[in-house]
Amino acid sequence: MNTLKNLISPKKIILNNEKEIQPPIPKLPFILVGLIIVVIVSAELTDFSFEKIIRNGHQFAAILAAMIPPNWEYAQEVIKPLKETIQMSLLGSIIGSILAVPFAILASVNVNHNKPLLLTIRFLLSLVRTLPTLIIALIATFVFDLGPFAGTIAIAIFTLGIVAKMIYEKIETVDMGPFEALEALGATKLKAFLSAIIPQILPAYLSNCLYCFEVNVRYAAILGYVGAGGIGLILNEKIGWREYDKVGMMLFMLFVTVVIIEYLSKYIRGKLR
Q1: Which domains does the chain have, with CATH numbers?
Q2: pLDDT at residue 116 tops 80
Q3: How far, in Å, CA of 117 to CA of 222, rounded?
Q4: Could you say which of 54, 106, 176, 178 would form a disulfide bridge with 196 (CB–CB 3.0 to 4.6 Å)?
């Protein structure tokens, strides 16, 4: 309570020579007022209503109840699209992780001293990270037609943006002494990078790649909504037909798959550390 009171109304500071220093103007009340205004405006713009939640919220429970028990006989039909989802995630993650390396090198301040190129690469990576995977998949379906190939491309682009950012931030914290020494001995930037920097960032790089694969399995599950293949296509279809017992089966199998991948990824990442 005293800490909160001091934040709202800080006490005067008295030095050893009995000189008083006026406390700074408290910022917390202004922050709280600003936050309240933002919440009120957001609620108005989004038509948020507790009344609607109370009136229709029970429908969530009704739909969940319709999914239990799941239709176990439908499991055989789920295996193929689920396998497709995992394959899309795996291939897209591998492609994106490999392509992220050169982009990460060009986006690192301590490796790339060409400022216009550096800023251009960072802008492109920021743009890629800004676009949701679903939007990238939608664009990919227009370019490459419907199917899992478009989903794989979308996942690869998303992975590229995330891994490249994580890696270039890691590169900027490494010891540049060995890199500069190899350059002084006549090695090219690429050779110096491979010999001096890659060993320092490799565990973090592999760990980030595994984490992205883990996340991509979740994202890939909804790419079928825009025709990019995977389990999302039949998931959307069964929800539309209100066949909730089959939806429950798909969600159950997807949950088990994600948990297994998550634990395997966590185990491998622990070994890498």
Answers
A1: 1-48 (no CATH), 72-272 (1.10.3720.10)
A2: yes
A3: 35
A4: 178
